[in-house]
Specification:
Distance between the termini: 40 Å
Radius of gyration: 20 Å
Shape: globular
Helix content: under 10%
């Protein structure tokens, strides 16, 4: 289940672009027409941030940055809506997407708008069965594919339609556009909050429900060819309803497989079919491994599931934490099914995406940031904790752990060992689960009004 976001009342523009291919209805998308190649492919560079938490494993760690000495606002770009997804960095450009369904290419040094592309009017609260983001446009963090030079995002359009767009990151040219409706249920009841991923030349998209768990939705994963043409692969959580895959961190690429966390499902008795769980999927979206807590029935009944935080790989383990606040450590090679964890510990209700540096995990708790150590023996140990009104998803670099307090509009740089505050500054209103981006000597923050950059001295 999605948790509360904030409202923004940016007005949707009137321009609606035509589809690049034909599609069917609830039976799922059909192959799109052929597309032209991007004209400005840019290979990944050391300073790039091409996906959520920088790398496909979602570690949130970047090395080689100068140590933070100060925090000074260097520029603010006012865009046409809230930026819920993490901004990306490709070369000298910052790529950002808004809830008004507009993608922007910004100059990384000044914040000047180099290009913008509006994908159509977003859905509004009045037409949705529930939810708390209004307007509802692009919510999941986009992903950049260096092999084709395209940045991909999923736009929710008026009427509840969902479309994948692939834009030339250098020019904003629309190269790929394809309908990507969830394979089961009512498209209007689905929300695409999870960050996009890339695996084997395909864009991976996960769906959950709207805040309120209303309507006929079922958690699902889609895999779409990066070219936009060819068959779309799908996986649906085998539960009667719900089971959303909605954590902001999105699917985690773990070698040649995907890891996803799943929310509460409709079933509260009998056999667990995949809700309140962690799943491993092949690139063809075949489920190969599965874990659910022994308490899954009560978790489903009380909305205390694992779907709130993307799982993280820590050495030979996978760590998963959900809304109940219990951390479960799994054998990465065999999750163990129901009750199959190697160890567990009371940690905190966690949301979004964690950061992982070696055996240390920085966990975004409901009311603070928690350092957790994973031992070689499979132990879980809590370390320092910074109380916050609401912890966004942390990242690590420049000798600091960076976290946004979205409840107080503050950005913190913390000592990784002891948790002491090294630097702090006001950022204004930011979306729930917001996560900063580290590149060169800058920290980028998506806000309710656009993107703001801070220099680190």
């Amino acid at each position: 289940m999605a948790v509360p976001g904030r409202r923004t009342d940016a007005v949707a523009a009137a321009l609606v672009l035509l589809l690049a291919g034909c599609t069917s209805g609830n039976s799922g998308p059909v192959p799109a027409q052929a597309v032209t190649a991007a004209r400005s492919a840019t290979p990944s560079a050391a300073g790039d941030w091409p996906t959520y938490h920088r790398d496909p494993a979602r570690t949130g760690v970047v090395s080689g940055l100068p140590a933070v000495r100060s925090l000074t606002r260097t520029w603010s770009a006012a865009l046409d809506g809230a930026v819920y997804g993490q901004p990306l960095v490709v070369g000298s450009r910052v790529l950002a997407a808004t809830e008004n369904n507009t993608l922007y290419g910004l100059d990384a040094a000044s914040g000047a708008v180099l290009w913008s592309r509006h994908l159509g009017p977003p859905a509004r609260a009045a037409e949705l069965p529930c939810g708390n983001i209004d307007p509802l446009g692009i919510t999941g963090t986009p992903v950049y594919d260096p092999s084709g030079g395209l940045v991909y995002a999923v736009a929710e359009l008026s009427g509840g339609r969902h479309e994948l767009a692939g834009l030339d990151a250098g020019t904003g040219e629309l190269v790929v556009r394809r309908e990507v409706e969830p394979p089961k249920g009512d498209p209007l009841a689905h929300q695409q909050r999870a960050a996009l991923a890339l695996l084997d030349g395909r864009v991976v998209i996960a769906y959950g429900g709207l805040f309120g768990d209303c309507g006929d939705y079922t958690g699902s994963v889609l895999s779409v060819p990066a070219t936009g043409a060819g068959p779309v692969l799908t996986y649906s959580v085998p539960t009667g309803r719900e089971g959303g895959i909605w954590a902001a961190g999105g699917p985690v690429v773990d070698g040649g497989r995907l890891l996803v966390s799943v929310g509460n499902g409709a079933e509260t008795s009998g056999t667990n079919q995949g809700s309140d769980s962690v799943l491993a999927l092949t690139p063809q979206l075949v489920r190969t491994d599965f874990f659910a807590p022994a308490s899954w029935q009560q978790d489903n009944a009380d909305d205390l599931d694992l779907g709130s935080l993307s799982p993280v790989r820590v050495g030979r383990f996978v760590l998963t934490v959900g809304k109940r606040g219990t951390g479960y450590l799994l054998d990465a090679g065999h999750f163990g099914g129901v009750g199959g964890q190697l160890s567990q510990a009371a940690l905190c209700p966690a949301y979004g995406g964690a950061a992982v540096s070696g055996g240390t995990v920085y966990l975004p708790c409901q009311d603070g940031l928690l350092q957790v150590t994973v031992g070689d023996d499979g132990s879980l140990r809590s370390g320092w904790r910074l109380p916050l009104h609401g912890a966004g998803s942390p990242v690590v670099g420049g000798g600091a752990v960076w976290v946004l307090d979205y409840g107080a509009g503050q950005l913190y740089a913390l000592d990784p060992v002891g948790g002491q505050v090294l630097r702090q500054t006001s950022v204004g209103a930011v979306p729930r689960f917001a996560s900063p981006v580290l590149t060169g000597g800058r920290v980028l923050v998506g806000t309710m009004a656009g993107v703001t950059a801070f220099g680190t001295g």
